[in-house]
């Protein structure tokens, strides 16, 4: 050789120091080039002892190509060749339309029956004294149901993504995820529940100009207590569902979010009704109970903040995750205002029982799609990356619903579930005589049109929003689902009210409304 070969020295585990050939002297096997024996001769023709160390970056690239599960947020220290690694999780994206539909069908029906049960509960409790004399509670219903849907489905989406990319494979990682996320949703539930009560008071005061301090404190205590207890119960259920799904070989993205939504609606509405009724009973004789309840749950906030702040998995969301849930709460409160103005009108009989159903089904389906797209993007990089599959502009409806990629396939499957699912739920409501309504053909046509239009709009917005947030360096698991479910509440309630109004104008409801 005409030039002297550069050598570097590196300490080994046994204390020996061996020279290393630089990486540019050794071509990789993938290039089809191999070093010649003469390349390893010194200037005097004698052999040089060479130790070739495998490039960490190349090893990492192989692992990333094989599993598509490299997490960009991991530190460089995690790239070592330690044998204490959990098994590589399998990719959940190799799915056919049939397998997607089969996995989504059961939790979708379970979620739907949960919303039917919530609608039946609302149909009953709307006649209670607390709903008659403190009508602002109706404004709280979509806000709190949407809040619980947002928090629990965002939790389910975060944990599903973490499970799919291998961040919950060891007991230590699992426990870290559980404690951090449980503390986080307690903080979010308490704060947003308090803000929801303020929004209910404001929206109730604006039209009538009437304000009662006792009713305001009652709304605050009921909202905060309901949000806190529901978060605790539903968060534990969600963790169990996701762990069980992984052990059974089921993609958590397909089952976790619908189950979260179904249980969230029923449990939250039952808690809100029971707590508000109990506090209303104590309002006259023990007026101090309501402020004490409100102060107790707010006083627990520092504890949950400290726990969530110490956990690296939730610290960022604790600081930056407020905007979507607060804006979503405000959007859902507008839907609650529509419900408050229509539920007591005889011309809108049935709104109370059908509103949770249409809103819940739409929110469930779009949450599944958003969670799947988010997982797909996390497998190709970290938020802020721009893979070729990420659209820069608003996608066309054809690319959202009729392309060959896996996300378009799942969008078609979810859209096709709307009509058969709602037919089952409508039959269930009718057989239980909910809503004092007889199902006629024209009513079913208008109802299905509203439901299909709602889901169509939501799936399209999800395709654009998730990719847009990803390109803006925002994690879609934390930011997209609150907006999408809140829009589902607003669009669903508005379209349903419009359908009832049109049906009343053409006279179809006159013979169908009971006393």
UniProtKB/TrEMBL annotation:
| Pfam families tied to this protein | MgtE
* Keyword vocabulary terms for this entry: Ion transport, Magnesium, Membrane, Transmembrane, Transmembrane helix, Transport
The topology of this chain with respect to the membrane is: Multi-pass membrane protein
Region (Disordered), start-end ranges? 1-46, 60-94
- Top-level lineage group: Eukaryota
Annotated GO biological processes are: metal ion transport
Query: Which stretches are transmembrane?
Result: 104-124, 182-204, 216-243, 255-275, 287-307, 319-339, 411-429, 441-461, 481-506
A single GO CC term, please? plasma membrane
Q: Which GO terms describe its molecular function?
A: inorganic cation transmembrane transporter activity; monoatomic cation transmembrane transporter activity
| Residue ranges of every copy of the SLC41A/MgtE integral membrane domain listed in the record | 141-275, 355-498
InterPro entries documented for this protein: SLC41_membr_dom (IPR006667), SLC41_membr_dom_sf (IPR036739), SLC41A1-3 (IPR045349)
What function is annotated for this protein?
A: Acts as a magnesium transporter.
Family named by the database record? Belongs to the SLC41A transporter family.
Q: Which PANTHER family match?
A: DIVALENT CATION TRANSPORTER SOLUTE CARRIER FAMILY 41 (PTHR16228), SOLUTE CARRIER FAMILY 41 MEMBER 1 (PTHR16228:SF23)
Name recorded for this polypeptide: Solute carrier family 41 member
